[in-house]
Amino acid sequence: MRIAFLNPQGNFDPKDSYWTEHPDFGGQLVYVKQVALAMGELGHQVDILTRKIIDPEWPEFSEKLDTYQDAPNVRIVRLPAGPETFLRKELLWPHLINDWVPNIIDFYQQEDLLPDFFSAHYGDGGLCGVLLKDKTEIPFSYTAHSLSAQKMDKLNLNSKNIQELEEYYFFRRRLLAERLSMNRSAVNITSTKQERYIQYSHNAYRGAVDWTDNNQFAVVPPGVNLDIFDKNSLLEDETEIVKFIQDKLARDISKERIDFPCIIASSRLDPKKNHLGLVEAFAASSELRQKANLVILTGNQEDPLNGFENAASTEKGVLNALLKVINEADLRGQVSMFAIHGQKPLGAAYRYFASKKSIFALTALYEPFGLAPLEAMASGMPVVVTKFGGPSESMVEGDQEFGLLIDPTDKDEISTALFQLTANVELWSKFSQAGYQRVLSRYIWKRTAEGYLENLLLTQKSNEDNQRIESLLPIPSYFMNPEEKNDVSLDELKTLYMEYEILCVGETLIDFISTRQSSSLRTADEFRRFLGGQPANVAVNAAKLGSRTAVLSKISQDRFGEFVEQSLQYHGVNTTHLLKTDQLPTTSVFITKTTGVPDFQVNRGADTLLTLRETPEELIINSQAVHTSCFALSREPSRSAVRRALRLAKRHQKIVSLDPNYNPRIWPDKIEAWEVLAQIMPYITIVKPSLNDARLLFDPNMSETELEAACMDRFHDLGADVVIVTRSGGIVTISTGGEVERVGPLPLVEVDSVIGGSDAFWAGLLVANLDGKSWKEAVCFAHQVAGLKLKNVGHIEQLINKELLYNQIEETLIKL
Question: What's the CA gap between 747 and 779, in Å, rounded?
Answer without folding.
Answer: 12
